[in-house]
């Protein structure tokens, strides 16, 4: 059984990558995806950009677009890599469009 702690997962990922341990790399990425929160999303985003981990960009953008704990007006959002910010805004636009369509459909039923 593998126990990964949040404070060491990025370092563990980098060591697993260096020593070619694909299973451990996978578990580290999955851990980061499952444990993304409003306190670590910027750090994870900066790290994902540094190691060019595109799949984390999507996960972080999804988190930012859907989380009520992420304030796009906050200073921390300014530190996110631009590629993640663009993905987040795009996802938020799609979400708004989806809810707008649902509201119109609902109002037409009334």
Describe this entry's structure for a reader.
This protein has 110 residues and is mostly helical. The protein contains five helices and no strands. The chain has helices at 9-18, 22-34, 41-50, 54-66, 82-109. Helix 3 packs antiparallel against helix 4 and helix 4 packs across helix 5 (82-109).
Number of strands: 0
**H-E string:** HHHHH
Level of helix content? 55-70%
Low-confidence parts: none
Percent of sequence in beta strands: under 5%
Tell me, briefly, the overall form. Answer: elongated
Report the biggest beta sheet as strand number plus sense, adding barrel if it closes.
Answer: none
Structural class: mainly alpha
Q: What would you call the quaternary organization?
A: single chain
Average pLDDT confidence is 87
Number of helices: 5
Radius of gyration: 17 Å
The separation of the N and C termini measures: 55 Å
Q: What does this entry show, briefly?
A:
This protein has helices at residues 9-18, 22-34, 41-50, 54-66, 82-109. It is mainly alpha-helical and 110 residues long.
